[in-house]
């Protein structure tokens, strides 16, 4: 009661979050400085005013439901309580989604919102135990199941009569899926597959929802039939009884424990003791096993990677969303927080007036847009190439695979680093869980290792780039994203520096081409020296990852510029977007200045001029910083941050969050009488 009385005297409520009628004066003044209409940018990012209205209506519909909102911050719950609450809310959430769909009020966009880093993460803050059901289980059946299998499973899965997960990663193997140890031996006598975990390291480890949620899984295992191993294939396996939820015979299953973040995702382990499943449970759209055990090979082994590519596209979208939240929090806080003196005797300035703070935050605002536009472009490319695959055209599949790998790798790594920078930019208050920055970092840094460890993914992109380089040197026409290599074959990449946005795009491409050429040259040199191709690849792998990253950065910068050229917006908004695009491009040249000085014709004076350009851009963006993040249109419930609320009432909200601590429910904790008082009286 003492704490409640104190808070009451100070003017704070202690039960529910306060809605303040008046914004912070500093925040209001920031919005008055804006040189463009933030709503115009919101509409642009959403895809039009109608899309903005639909999104806001969905947010209102779900966020106004008291059963979906938290009364107690999740950090004060036990691990078991977190999971149970997440299941309760996930069931309520997706039941509501299904009802809306059945009433004609829901579409795929609504499902994307529920599974995204925006609305979905506002309701299921520490991970979604149903995520893999919708993101991997259902898409895999759609992409790799026959029409008959889709008819059998899709209705039940889509209506949540069953809950599935995707069990690929094992305790001993992750990204190297050819090394998976789980086996599936075909028995032609019974027309069944026998799924088995022959070793401890063959246990499935990490799948979301596997611990105690899913009752079915798509299990990736090594197929054995007619005495031969046929490589990895997907199988649908029932894990738990549909009525009792008890594990099926031969299934060893549980949860793997707590993690840095995503602790409500219910990641699990799974072992098999000679579990038999019907032949029809192998997904056979591509490869098939006939009743007598005859193996019918897939037209391409790459067709089985479709689900992974889809997920990597989704990850790029999610990272952009989470980073948007982080920069919104940090920018708004930086507009309210005042610290130190710029000039003696003058009032303390907003910390956003410090050039160092601008340097921490503004390039990351630009990164939000670069990632968002890249995600849109990659999503469209994915859909186009998927349509081509349905027609039997697999020509562009390697290009899509390479792009999904490098964009997932670079964007997740950049996103995690950027969110940590935003946390540090908020000082000590950013360390508090109520800032939502620690949790956001935990969600994004996980993406650096799940669905493909980033270094391994860069090396997969590098394989595509090495092939592309050899095609370029042979005069073979290249696919669009690597077409810039053709000019590198016939001309020197160290062309004269051009101090313009288009010049920076070409410079990024020149650097990427130079690194690709160098890696290919060093590979060939090592092989000619008697080293095996495999060892030569390993010995060149540092350069290979670097050339893949450089290629990806060239893609990101070029796509940002090209996307900007397609927009039909007001002059005022176009100017702001151009400034952000330039900042993104210049920032990455300066971050990688050694690369640009080495193979490219960039001089020290050019680098100095770029530094001046960057500092000018920071000053130009400063008046619009709050309005730009306002344009992301992230409501307070989704932002879930004491530091980043739209009203800017940071200090009031920090006290409000402190009041929620269970330790503040009584003036004296029982530990005083039990431990502290005897200790104080013990006369050490």
Automatic annotation (TrEMBL):
Chief location: other
Sequence positions that bind FAD: 169, 208
Tell me the cofactors it needs. FAD
Pathways per UniProt: Lipid metabolism; peroxisomal fatty acid beta-oxidation
Pfam families referenced in this protein's UniProt entry, alphabetically:
ACOX, ACOX_C_alpha1, Acyl-CoA_dh_M, Acyl-CoA_ox_N
Q: Where is the Acyl-CoA oxidase C-terminal domain?
A: 501-681
Identify the GO cellular component terms for this protein.
peroxisome
MF terms (GO), sorted A to Z: acyl-CoA oxidase activity; FAD binding; fatty acid binding
The record's Gene Ontology biological-process terms are: fatty acid beta-oxidation using acyl-CoA oxidase; lipid homeostasis
Where is the protein found, in the record's own terms?
Answer: Peroxisome
Residues in coiled coil: none
Q: Which Gene3D superfamilies match?
A: Acyl-CoA dehydrogenase/oxidase, N-terminal domain, Butyryl-CoA Dehydrogenase, subunit A, domain 2, Butyryl-CoA Dehydrogenase, subunit A, domain 3
* Record-annotated Acyl-CoA oxidase/dehydrogenase middle domain positions: 166-275
| Keywords from the named record | FAD, Fatty acid metabolism, Flavoprotein, Lipid metabolism, Oxidoreductase, Peroxisome
Q: Where is the Acyl-coenzyme A oxidase N-terminal domain?
A: 37-163
Occurrences of domain Acyl-CoA oxidase C-alpha1 (ranges): 305-466
Q: What is this protein called?
A: Acyl-coenzyme A oxidase
Where are the catalytic residues?
Answer: 451 (proton acceptor)
Family in the record: Belongs to the acyl-CoA oxidase family.
């Amino acid at each position: 009661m003492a704490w409640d009385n104190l808070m009451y005297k100070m003017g704070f409520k202690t039960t529910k979050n306060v809605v303040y009628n008046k914004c912070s004066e500093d925040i209001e003044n920031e919005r008055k400085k804006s040189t463009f209409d933030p709503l115009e940018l919101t509409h642009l990012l959403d895809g039009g005013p109608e899309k903005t209205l639909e999104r806001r209506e969905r947010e209102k519909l779900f966020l106004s439901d008291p059963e979906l909102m938290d009364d107690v911050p999740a950090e004060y719950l036990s691990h078991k309580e977190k999971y149970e609450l997440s299941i309760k809310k996930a069931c309520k959430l997706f039941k509501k989604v299904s009802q809306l769909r059945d009433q004609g009020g829901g579409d795929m966009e609504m499902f994307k919102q529920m599974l995204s880093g925006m609305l979905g993460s506002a309701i299921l803050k520490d991970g979604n135990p149903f995520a893999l059901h919708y993101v991997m289980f259902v898409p895999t059946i759609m992409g790799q199941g026959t029409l008959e299998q889709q008819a059998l499973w899709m209705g039940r899965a889509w209506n949540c009569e069953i809950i599935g997960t995707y069990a690929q990663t094992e305790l001993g193997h992750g990204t190297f899926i050819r090394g998976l140890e789980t086996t599936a031996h075909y028995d032609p006598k019974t027309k069944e597959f026998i799924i088995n975990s022959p070793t401890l390291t063959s246990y499935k480890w990490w799948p979301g929802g596997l611990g105690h949620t899913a009752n079915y899984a798509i299990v990736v295992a090594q197929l054995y039939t007619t005495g031969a191993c046929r490589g990895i294939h997907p199988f649908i396996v029932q894990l738990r009884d549909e009525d009792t939820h008890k594990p099926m015979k031969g299934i060893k299953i549980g949860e793997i424990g707590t993690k840095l973040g995503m602790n409500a995702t219910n990641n699990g382990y799974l072992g098999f003791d000679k579990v038999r499943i019907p032949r029809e449970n192998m997904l056979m759209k591509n490869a098939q096993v006939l009743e007598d055990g005859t193996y019918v090979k897939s037209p391409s082994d790459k067709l089985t990677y479709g689900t992974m590519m889809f997920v990597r596209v989704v990850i790029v979208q999610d990272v952009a969303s989470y980073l948007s939240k982080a920069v919104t929090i940090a920018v708004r806080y930086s507009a309210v927080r005042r610290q130190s003196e710029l000039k003696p005797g003058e009032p303390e300035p907003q910390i956003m007036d410090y050039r160092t703070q601008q340097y921490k935050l503004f390039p990351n605002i630009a990164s939000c847009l670069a990632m968002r536009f890249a995600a849109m472009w990659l999503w469209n490319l994915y859909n186009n190439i998927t349509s081509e695959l349905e027609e039997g055209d697999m020509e562009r599949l390697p290009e899509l695979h390479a792009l999904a790998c490098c964009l997932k790798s670079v964007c997740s790594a950049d996103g995690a680093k950027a969110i940590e920078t935003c946390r540090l930019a908020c000082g000590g208050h950013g360390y508090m869980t109520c800032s939502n920055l620690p949790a956001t970092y935990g969600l994004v840094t996980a993406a650096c290792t799940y669905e493909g460890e980033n270094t391994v993914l860069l090396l997969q992109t590098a394989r595509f780039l090495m092939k592309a380089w050899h095609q370029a040197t042979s005069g073979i026409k290249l696919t669009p994203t690597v077409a810039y290599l053709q000019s590198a074959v016939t001309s020197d990449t160290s062309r004269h520096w051009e101090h313009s946005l288009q010049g920076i795009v070409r410079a990024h491409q020149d650097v990427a081409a130079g690194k690709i050429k160098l890696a290919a040259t060093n590979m060939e040199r090592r092989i000619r020296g008697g080293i095996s191709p495999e060892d030569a690849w390993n010995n060149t792998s540092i350069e290979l990852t670097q050339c893949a990253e450089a290629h990806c950065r060239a893609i990101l910068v070029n796509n940002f510029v090209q996307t900007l050229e397609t927009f039909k917006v007001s002059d005022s908004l176009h100017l702001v977007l151009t400034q952000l695009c330039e900042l993104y491009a210049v920032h990455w040249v300066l971050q990688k200045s050694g690369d640009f000085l080495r193979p490219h014709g960039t001089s020290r004076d050019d680098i100095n001029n770029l530094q001046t350009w960057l500092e000018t851009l920071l000053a130009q963006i400063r008046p619009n910083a709050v309005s730009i993040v306002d344009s992301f249109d992230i409501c307070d419930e989704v932002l879930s941050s004491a530091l980043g609320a739209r009203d800017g009432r940071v200090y009031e909200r920090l006290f409000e969050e402190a009041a929620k601590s269970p330790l503040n429910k009584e003036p004296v904790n029982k530990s005083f009488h039990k431990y502290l008082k005897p200790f104080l009286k013990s006369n050490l």
